[in-house]
Amino acid sequence: MSNREWIILITLSIILIALLHFLTPTDKLLLHQIYERLYYIPIGFAAFRFGWRGGILSAIFAGFTYFPHIFFQWRQADSSFILDQYVEIAVFFVFGFVTGLLGDRLRSEKHRAEKINLALQRAYSELREATDQLIKAERITSLAEMASTVVHEIRNPLSSIKGAIEILEADVSEERMEFARIAKREIERLDNIVQSFFDFSRSKNLDKQKIRIDQVISEVLTLIKEQAELQRVQLSYDFNSDLPSIDADPNQVKQVLLNLAVNSLQAMPDGGNLKFSTFTEAGHVIIEVEDTGGGIPTEITRRIFEPFFSTKQRGLGLGLTIAHKIMTEHNGSIESLNTDTGAKFILRFPT
Fold first, then answer.
1. Mean pLDDT, range 87-101, rounded to an integer
2. CA nearest to 38, candidates 22, 61, 20
3. C-alpha span between 154 and 195 (Å, rounded)
């Protein structure tokens, strides 16, 4: 019930009790005593609902409605009896005030308990998130160590095989040359996979310098322009001319943006829009990369930055992991969300 409904209910209750007094003959003393006690019910409700002020106001109203009954109907009664009735009105005030104080105390304790509960829930959520991040960091560290070993063991034999094929090409007939080209392409594909492992495993010293994000984005747009045209993807950049420079490794930042752009293009094989936006917010430079590729399924949103998690048949699942790793090394952050038409990635760099 709303406060207004409570006020109406309490007011009508007091008026009803007063009417019962006036409509009941004075010789029905027991009934009148019962009616007197009934006043405490609306006064108590008012006190618990609105505090001591509500208790006092309801007691005033109850006394105001009860006083005419004493003055007109009991004026022939014994003076001690009349005095008892006035004392009863005084008790209304005491009851309303004390009950109101208790009501205020209960509300205060309830509010305090709710705040404590909310703080505990927030602390639990933060602790759980921190634990998840710690587990993820330990997992990534272990995988990085494994990847480093794999890279070392595979890259050298691959280089030898590639060199041997290049030597054999000189003695291979033209009709078999295509097989040599296929072998070289597959070796290059394997080398790209190994390079992804290498990028994931290495702890590279950042070559931080003052860079302008708009220049890095322009370079990325140039790199993906041809592929975007082939797929009929419209590229756009909402440029902020007042954007401050940031301390970052330009090649690493370019890799993050390129990974996101490539993912977006792969999500729009039949055309769409890919938009880059930049602005500042709370001491950070923000980059938004938004596409119209249908978005990320809700059930996998929490896993997209995990190593080797991919929904693509030929994907390694390291692109977003590497992007997350680079952003963390820059004391920044990366997050994803779905829009009405696709996915949006938000990068935050401290200024």
1. 85
2. 20
3. 11
Which candidate, 178, 169, 254, places its Cα nearest to that of 211? Answer: 254
Please give the structure tokens belonging to residue 185.
């392409």
Q: What's 181's domain CATH number?
A: 1.10.287
Alpha-carbon distance of 312 to 293, in angstroms, equals 14
- Give the domain extent around 152: 142-201
pLDDT digits (tens, 9 = 90+) for 108-139: 888 888 888 888 888 888 888 777 766 666 66
What DSSP element (H or E) covers 31? helix 29-38
**282 and 302 housed in the same domain:** yes
How many distinct structural domains can be found in the chain? Answer: 3
Q: Using CA atoms, how far apart are residues 197 and 308, in angstroms rounded to an integer?
A: 10
Give the number of residues written for the chain: 351
C-alpha 281/C-alpha 351 separation (Å) is 10
Beta bridge partners of 238: 277
Same domain, 251 and 273: yes
Quick one: CA dihedral 20, 22, 28, 31, positive or negative?
Answer: positive
Closest to 249 in 3D by CA, of 302, 326, 348: 326
Same domain, yes or no: 228 and 330:
yes
- Give the span between the Cα atoms of 245 and 209, in whole angstroms: 9
- Give pTM, 2 decimals: 0.50
Residues 40 and 164 in one domain: no
Instruction: Tell me the torsion sign for CA atoms 278, 281, 286, 292.
Output: negative
162 contacts 189 by C-beta, under 8 angstroms: no
Question: Which contiguous run of DSSP H or E holds residue 320?
Answer: helix 319-329
As a whole number of angstroms, the longest Cα–Cα distance in the chain is 136
Query: Tens digits of per-residue pLDDT, 43-83?
Result: 888 888 888 888 888 888 888 887 777 776 666 667 677 77
User: Which tokens in the block code for residue 151?
Assistant: 């890279």
**Dist CA 350 CA 85 (whole Å):** 74
Instruction: Give the residue from 50, 48, 49, 82 showing the smallest Cα distance to 66.
Output: 82
Is residue 122 a part of any domain in this protein?
A: no
At residue 243, φ and ψ (nearest 5 deg) are -70, 130
